[in-house]
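Q: Given only this backbone (325 positions), what sequence would you predict?
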């Protein structure tokens, strides 16, 4: 297949590019490189540099290439930043996505879409683990963005019944390649695992935001999913939308949560380095606990996480970041 990956210079996108190329697919990456890393893109992929807000660039892309499927990862991802600068996030994440889908369908004739969504669409859940039909009350602009894009896809399928999509609601993506070749390197970095690892490597203070959450140890509890398992979820979902056209919404997680303190403890164990923790006020928009009910994707596409135990997550992440230091 010939597949377009938007945001292919980013963390999860770069893993999908490699996985698809390994399986003999032809891959084109569309990325502004504003926050992505060009060096993370597999050499077998073609890079088309552009911005989703630029319709002319998208028209050029889809007039030059004919794609069998589109996987959409491009988007800003910081909950905190989205709260401080909501218009930046709306323009990039919502308007950009709308442009992409519209041009992909009308100019490119694309019928198969995989969208990188988020558990942030749920907000503070009233039921744990969280099923896909749980009420959607996002507490951040980022979560609102993801929910709006899901609605755009649903509306497009009503207008164009021949298209098929899967929106994958990630819980906490993490970890690195087993051989240390790829890992998590955002700019700016906001995720706890790389931030805590960098604090250990550089012997700098680590800021722990929020110790008064309604959780057993007072820190946020999250369902962590290894990036290699996320890759598998995308490949299985692409097969699903190809063989059984419809609109699907899947949680991608493990059903088990770890607190921020547990994550930091595991990093200290893997590194042998004690991290100096400075406790800070909680960040706006962070939910107490997010744990997935991922039974739908397990039952419907056969998804089974293999690398998402905390020890493997931290060990792979530590080895990759150590190589970068």
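A: Predicted residues:
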């Amino acid at each position: 297949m010939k597949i377009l990956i938007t945001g292919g210079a980013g963390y999860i996108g770069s893993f999908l590019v490699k996985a698809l190329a390994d399986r003999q697919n032809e891959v084109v990456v569309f990325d502004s490189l504003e926050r992505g890393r060009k060096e993370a893109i597999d050499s077998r992929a073609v890079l088309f540099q552009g911005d989703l807000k630029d319709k002319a660039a998208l028209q050029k892309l889809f007039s030059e290439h004919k794609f069998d499927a589109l996987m959409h990862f491009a988007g800003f991802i910081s909950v905190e930043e989205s709260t401080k600068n909501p218009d930046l996030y709306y323009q990039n994440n919502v308007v950009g996505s709308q442009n992409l889908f519209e041009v992909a369908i009308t100019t490119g004739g694309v019928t198969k879409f995989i969208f990188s969504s988020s558990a942030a669409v749920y907000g503070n859940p009233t039921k744990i683990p969280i099923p896909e039909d749980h009420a959607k009350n996002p507490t951040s602009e980022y979560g609102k963005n993801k929910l709006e894009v899901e609605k755009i896809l649903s509306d497009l399928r009503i207008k164009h019944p021949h298209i098929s999509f899967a929106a994958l609601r990630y819980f906490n993506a993490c970890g690195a390649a087993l051989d240390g070749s790829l890992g998590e390197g955002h700019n700016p970095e906001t995720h706890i695992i790389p931030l805590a690892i960098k604090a250990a490597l550089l012997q700098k203070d680590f800021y722990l935001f929020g110790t008064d959450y309604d959780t057993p140890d007072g820190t946020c509890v999250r369902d962590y999913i290894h990036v290699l398992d996320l890759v598998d979820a995308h490949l299985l979902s692409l097969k699903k939308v190809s063989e059984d056209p419809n609109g699907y919404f899947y949680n991608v997680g493990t059903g088990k949560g770890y607190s921020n303190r547990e994550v930091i403890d595991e990093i200290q164990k893997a590194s042998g380095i004690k991290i100096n923790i400075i406790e800070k006020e909680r960040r706006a928009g962070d939910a107490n606990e997010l744990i997935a009910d991922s039974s739908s994707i397990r039952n419907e596409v056969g998804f089974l996480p293999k690398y998402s135990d905390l020890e493997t997550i931290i060990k792979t992440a530590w080895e990759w970041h150590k190589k970068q230091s």
